[in-house]
Design brief:
The chain has 12 helices and 7 strands. It has 2 domains: 5-108, no CATH class; 119-299, YojJ-like (1 (3-Layer(aba) Sandwich). It is 60% helix and 13% strand. Strand 6 (247-251) and strand 7 form a beta hairpin. It is an alpha+beta fold and 300 residues long. The chain has a 7-stranded mixed sheet, sandwiched between helices. 25% of the residues are buried.
């Protein structure tokens, strides 16, 4: 009969607390230990929230509760069945949810987390604000001319593998450069542009495609690539349709279609900047956006 994880968990805590009580000074170590574990659990839950993997976590918790209850009420057959699943089902779960788990681990160890805790986030945000407006200008221009485009904006998870599939540019972000890259019959127009570290890192990059079951039949390769990329990473992907000129955004495996200029800016800001800011800083950014729009209206 496989080892019962509930009993092993109980024995672990009994042994741990017994060892700590034998040495009163080690209570400080226990507190530090608990704080670190709580912090890690909080970060993992925050990363997995809203994803398929979060449903997996809820299922595992439910399984633990049922296994614990079956042990208390001496339901031996049910307990044996559940214990076997918990013992040998971990490998299967890792295989099934490999993309989500990999994304969670990459986000947990990402450099942006470190900059946040070191207080360097404001410098990154100030560089990113202007880039979002430049990307927005380029996307609207591409939409007007019905020029197909695929722009991947890197966030926490680094995209070095994807960047390596294209042509390195490492240039400053500008509307003119983005429009020129996607101009038909130019060498780099086919594929995706990767925005990384406030630069256009590469163009003509190859993205992973989503399966046919994940997208509507009327959507083409660009949209399939955008959804596929959003499932493999936490990147925000902007798509311009070559057939209709409509703008879409893919994130976390979902596609937000037929966006207008204001909606595009709002989504980019909320997903790339606003989530990193404190409430007071959010207000400052939104006020600046309103002022910019008012100035544009007066000029027109």
């Amino acid at each position: 009969m496989p080892n019962n994880p509930i009993i092993e968990f109980k024995d672990f805590w009994i042994t741990t607390f017994t060892n700590y009580m034998q040495n009163p000074w080690s209570i400080i170590t226990l507190i530090i230990d608990i704080i670190i574990v709580v912090f890690l659990v909080y970060e993992v839950v925050k990363i997995l929230k809203g994803s398929r993997a979060m449903q997996l976590v809820k299922g595992i918790i439910f399984l633990f509760i049922i296994t614990w209850l079956s042990s208390i009420f001496n339901l031996k057959i049910l307990n044996y069945f559940l214990t076997t699943i918990m013992t040998y089902g971990v490998i299967l779960l890792i295989v099934l949810f490999q993309p989500e788990l990999r994304r969670a681990l990459e986000q947990l160890g990402s450099s942006s987390k470190l900059t946040k805790y070191l207080g360097l986030e404001k410098d990154i945000i100030s560089k990113t604000k202007e880039d979002i407006y430049k990307i927005g200008i380029a996307v609207m221009e591409l939409a007007k001319t019905k020029t197909g485009a695929l722009i991947v904006i890197e966030r926490d998870i680094k995209l070095k593998e994807i960047i390596s599939t294209g042509v390195t540019i490492n240039g400053e972000i500008s509307p003119q450069l983005l429009v020129n890259i996607f101009t038909p019959k130019t060498p780099l127009h086919d594929g995706a542009v990767i925005i990384s570290d406030n630069k256009i890192s590469a163009a003509a990059c190859v993205l992973p495609l989503a399966s046919d079951g994940d997208i509507a039949k009327e959507l083409g390769t660009r949209h399939r690539a955008a959804i596929g990329m959003s499932k493999e990473s936490d990147a925000i992907i902007v798509v311009v349709s070559e057939e209709t000129g409509k703008i879409s955004i893919a994130k976390e495996g979902t596609l937000i279609a037929d966006l207008k200029e204001e909606a595009l800016k709002k989504i980019l800001i909320s997903n790339i900047i606003t989530k990193r800011l404190k409430t007071s800083e959010k207000k400052t950014i939104l006020d600046k956006i309103k002022n910019i729009n008012l100035k544009k209206a007066k000029k027109e």
